[in-house]
Amino acid sequence: MRSPVVAALTLVPLSIALTASCLSTQTAPPVPGSATAAAPAAGGPAYLDPANWRTVKPVVTDDIVYATVPHIPNPSAESAPNPGTPSGIRPPLPNTGPPGTMDMHLDVYQVPSDKPTPVVIQIHGGGWIRGDRPSGSGSFGPFFAAGMSVVAVQYRNAIDAPAPAAVQDVLCAMSWVKKNAAKYNFDPNKVVTWGGSAGGHLALMAGYAPASMDPPGCTDQPKVVAVIDMYGASDVAESLTFHGSMDFTHQWIGLDLPLPPDPAPAAAAAPAAPVSAPAAASIPATPGSAPIAASAGTAAPGGAPRVRPSAPHWPEPTEDMLASARYVSPLTYIHPGLPPTFIINGDHDGTYNPTQSYKLKAALDAAHVPNQEDIVVGGGHGNFSPAENQKGTILWMQFLHDNGVIE
User: Fold this and answer.
1) pLDDT for 364-395, tens place per residue?
2) What is the SS3 assignment for 330?
3) Looking at residues 261-286, what average pLDDT do you find?
4) Closest CA to 228 of 136, 98, 99, 139
5) Domain check: are 308 and 332 in the same one?
6) Are residues 344 and 383 in the same domain?
7) Do 74 and 182 fall into the same domain?
8) For residues 158 and 172, is the Cβ–Cβ distance under 8 A?
9) In-domain check, residue 234
């Protein structure tokens, strides 16, 4: 059960392709104690050897409805361009609840065991504005090899409801895990939360949020014994103004509308007369990303290349917005006794300011919370090399072992 810390702020009642924009930023070097290398020790646990990551086959039960929640209009998200649907996620399912509600689903990957297994709550990314559970379990192999079951969780994106709905949905999914622990052979005293990007933020909140944030009917929480945060936001208030994250963060907080588009770039891009698009024409992309080659599908009437719209601009956040963002910021809730936390991030992350990871580690150190940080030198917002991904996975599996989660 999480400690009943009282939230310092009250939120106004409201119930990947992430932007490719990148703002050049000076980042701190890896702090002392950051992980720099890892290799499976000879004769060590099998789960530290990548050769064993695809050997355990779980029993899969998917599309379980764990809650039926309200759809809450969010003009901030509704007024922004459709972020599209990423590949590799589950297709939407018909809703079984009454009008104005949404079924929230989860998938169980149950590892065969003669004793209750630790369980990993997997939380997808997507900037809180898009995404769903993965369609397969390819990335879960290291956990299966360690005898851990996995529960992949759906939550409401910004278009479905503004903050803090996504946090509350994850907390409800955790409550479901505890309620159904005997049925699926889970150990409710060994729950790990794990996610990347927005999922990393939600994994932190699932482990750190005070009991006062639990939604009705979801107050009986299992014990979170570790958090694996892959390049998630720890300071959502800062994310409102950082170039790479401000668009989707404003959409999720849901308290303002984007500024009207500047007509100057559109006027400058408009041709004086219809022209035929060159075979190798380029389309201006989001600032900081590579140009997109024109194709037959990108030509506007008259043959001119269609310009890809940039992310909208937003007003400076108000004090109410900043308070709402702090309410859903993991840094707000740092105190002694939090679950051990593993952090991985690239030192050139252009989506969330990478200094957020350094601030999180410093705050955890000050509160004497066990933690470890793996800084990927030259790395961005995920998309690390296969070698770095393997290194990070071995490090966090060793971290789970060192903190008594797995044997």
Assistant:
1) 999 999 999 999 999 999 999 999 999 999 99
2) helix
3) 42
4) 139
5) no
6) yes
7) yes
8) no
9) yes
Q: Are both 116 and 230 inside the same structural domain?
A: yes
State how many domains the chain has.
Answer: 2
pLDDT at 42: 59
Measured CA to CA, the distance from residue 329 to residue 220 in angstroms comes to 22
The whole-angstrom separation of Cα 338 and Cα 207 is 7
| DSSP H helical ranges for 186-286 | 198-208, 236-239, 246-253, 263-269
The answer to whether 376 and 384 have CB atoms below 8 angstroms apart is yes
Please report, for the domain that includes residue 63, its CATH number. Answer: 3.40.50.1820
How far, in Å, CA of 357 to CA of 349, rounded? 10
Is the peptide bond between 164 and the residue preceding it cis, with omega within 30 degrees of 0? Answer: yes
> 136-171, pLDDT tens digit by residue?
899 999 999 999 999 999 999 999 999 999 999 999
**Contact at 8 Å (CB) between 348 and 378?**
yes
Single out the residue of 232, 237, 235 nearest to residue 317, CA to CA: 237
Q: Are residues 182 and 288 in the same domain?
A: no
Looking at the structure, do residues 191 and 292 belong to the same domain, yes or no? no
CA gap 281, 291 in Å, rounded: 9
Q: Which domain holds residue 294?
A: 280-313
Residue 365 included in any domain: yes
Please state, in angstroms and rounded to a whole number, the distance separating the CA atoms of residues 164 and 106.
Answer: 19
Token digits for 150?
A: 């996995």
Encoded tokens for 400: 């789970």
Strand partners, 101: 70
Q: Which residues contact 234 (CB under 8 A, 6 or more apart)?
A: 201, 204, 329, 330, 331, 356, 357, 359, 360
Domain closes at, from 291, 313, 335:
313
Q: Beta partners for 68? A: 103
Whether residue 151 is found in the same domain as residue 192: yes
131 part of a folded domain:
yes
Cβ-Cβ contacts under 8 Å for 157 (sequence gap 6 or more): 77, 126, 128, 129, 130, 131, 166
Report DSSP letters for 115-160, one per residue.
SPEEEEEEE--STTTS---BSS-GGGHHHHHTT-EEEEE----TTT
pLDDT tens string 81-128: 889 888 888 888 999 999 999 999 999 999 999 999 999 999 999 999
Residue 21 phi, psi (nearest 5): -60, 145
Report yes or no on 267 lying in a domain.
no
Query: What are the φ and ψ backbone dihedral angles of 147, each rounded to 5 degrees?
Result: 80, 25
Residue at a domain's end among 289, 313, 337: 313
